[in-house]
Write a structure and sequence with these properties.
It is a single chain. The protein is an all-alpha fold and 188 residues long. The protein has a single domain (51-182), classed as Tetracycline Repressor, domain 2. 70% of the residues lie in helices and 0% in strands. The relative contact order is 0.11.
Length: 188
C-alpha cells in the first residue's frame, strides 16, 4: 500500500501533468484523480480543496526552479554576469512547460491571485526571485552590475521574461537578457 507522502506527491505530479496537457480550466479534481490513478475522494484526504492542490503543485514546481537559483548568489564574481544569468534562465525555462499553466491558474483565479499578491506585499518570498536579487546585489557590490538598477525589480523582470516566453511569443532568452544587460539609454 502506498505511503501517504507518495500518494500526495503523485497527486501533485498529476495536477502538474493535467494543467500542462489540458490547461487550468480543465484541471478538475476528477481529471487529477484519474491521472493519479486514485479516487477523487483521495485528493480531499491530502488537500482541503482544489486551491490547495494547485498551490501545492505550483510550489512543488517552483522548488525545482529554486534548487537551481539558490546556487546563483555564490557564483557572483565568477564567469560573466551574462553567462551566469543565461545558465539559470535556461534551467528555469526547462520547467516552464510545467510552470506556465500553474502560473496562469494563479493569475486568473481570484483566490490564488490574492494569496500571491498578499505574499508579495509581505516582501519578496524566499525562492527564485530572492536568489536572483541576492545574486544581482552581490554582483553590484563587485562593480559588475551598475549601482543604478534595483536588484529586486531586475530579478522580477528576469522571472517574467523566462516564464512569459512560455507563451511562445517574444524574443529569445538570450536577446531579452542582452537588452536587459545593455539597457536602453545611450552610454556617454
Amino acid at each position: 500500500m502506498p505511503r501517504r507522502h507518495d500518494t500526495k506527491q503523485r497527486l501533485i505530479q498529476a495536477a502538474v501533468h493535467v494543467a500542462r496537457t489540458r490547461g487550468y480550466a480543465h484541471t478538475t479534481t476528477r481529471a487529477v484523480a484519474e491521472q493519479a490513478g486514485v479516487s477523487e475522494a483521495t485528493i480531499y484526504r491530502h488537500f482541503p480543496d482544489k486551491f490547495s492542490l494547485i498551490h501545492a503543485a505550483a510550489s512543488d514546481t517552483a522548488a525545482q526552479v529554486s534548487a537551481v537559483t539558490q546556487e546563483l548568489p555564490p557564483r557572483a564574481g565568477s564567469s560573466t554576469v551574462r553567462a551566469n544569468l543565461l545558465d539559470v534562465m535556461g534551467h528555469m525555462a526547462s520547467v516552464r512547460a510545467d510552470m506556465a499553466p500553474l502560473e496562469l491558474a494563479i493569475a486568473t483565479d481570484p483566490e490564488l491571485s490574492q494569496a500571491r499578491s498578499q505574499a508579495i506585499e509581505r516582501g519578496l518570498p524566499d525562492g527564485p526571485p530572492r536568489h536572483l536579487a541576492e545574486y544581482l546585489a552581490a554582483e553590484q557590490s563587485l562593480g559588475r552590475v551598475t549601482a543604478t538598477v534595483d536588484p529586486v525589480t531586475t530579478a522580477l523582470v528576469i522571472m517574467t521574461q523566462v516564464f512569459g516566453s512560455a507563451l511562445g511569443t517574444g524574443p529569445s532568452l538570450e536577446d531579452s537578457l542582452d537588452v536587459l544587460l545593455t539597457g536602453l539609454e545611450p552610454r556617454t
